[in-house]
Amino acid sequence: MLNKIKYIRKISNIPNSCVEKYLDLKGKKANPLKELGVYYSGISQLKSGYRIGNPDHGDTYIIIFTKSGTGYLLTSQGEIIMTAGTVTVIPAWEPCFWEVYRDEWTILWFHCHETPWWREFKGRVLYKPTAFIPRLENAMTGYLQETAGNQAEPGLETAAGLYARIITSHLSRSLQDLDSVSGSQLELENLRDEIKSSLSKNWNTKLMAKKLNISPSTLQRRCLDNYRKTPRQILIEMRMEYAETLVECTDYPLKTIAQSTGYSDEFIFSSAFKKHFGLSPKLYRRKHTKILP
After folding, report:
1. With 0-12 CB in 10 A as exposed, 13-18 as middle and 19+ as buried, what is 33?
2. With b meaning 16 or more CB within 10 Å and e meaning fewer, what string describes 193-216?
């Protein structure tokens, strides 16, 4: 890790294919956000090749909500694969580098000066699941619409100010319980990413627990607490998600798809696929194929 950290340098590579919308934080309408320390914010649809690096971003706290896709973050405290439905807080003065992990990454983000509210997060990189992203996105989209074109319509400032208060409320509420988050959530997310990148491996609950140096019963409890699903259910969902893509978008033989998704033979795979989707892989392919002629 230390070897990676020392190479963090000032980087700003933003491909033209990226689409970013920035919140107008001038004037009274933005006061609720500015009181929280927010001075720069937006919604970004980022593409492969996007990367930002900064060995020192001063007193700025960076908050990233991942709506979809995946991002990679490197700091002095470790590496994080930022997946959909999560929020990440990078504290002031922390050297950091982040980029699109695969093809795309859609995020809601905030840069905040260090105010008394943010000091409780001082010195710690935090990462956790959050349910606030849809509400936060709706409020930010409303704010963007009300401030577009600097129109001087009656009530415009009031409407934008209301959205600013809603954004502030959702932002603060989404972070209120960060102190109660243990490292187990981050460990589970990283394990999920490892499984997704090696689905052909013969994964099972015992092996998954071994990866985290915990017992299978502890893994079961943690998965139920965080995802309301057992480790086995999570594994099957990931396998079926990948299998569906291969069945729809390739002409691979079922034997190859079975091996790619961790099944010992095509018959066991076909049975699992039919149980999950209600159709055999062959019938599903005929009905949903996306293979181009």
Report:
1. buried
2. bebeeebeeebebeebbeeeebee
Rounded to whole angstroms, the Cα distance separating 222 from 227 reads 8
pTM over 0.70: no
Residue 18 and residue 7 share a domain: yes
Same domain, 133 and 210: no
Q: How many domains does the chain have?
A: 2
Q: Are residues 25 and 158 in the same domain?
A: yes
Token readout for 99 is 């980029």
d(CA 22, CA 107): 12
The CATH number of the domain holding residue 222 is 1.10.10.60
CB 169 within 8 A of CB 132: no
Question: Does 171 share its domain with 201?
Answer: no
Whole-number average pLDDT of the chain? 86
Radius of gyration of the chain (CA): 22
Structural domain boundaries enclosing 139:
2-181
On the CB side of 283, CA atoms within 13 Å amount to 8
Q: What is the pLDDT of residues 273-291, one digit of tens each?
A: 999 999 999 999 988 775 4
Confidence class for position 2, pLDDT limits 50, 70, 90: very low
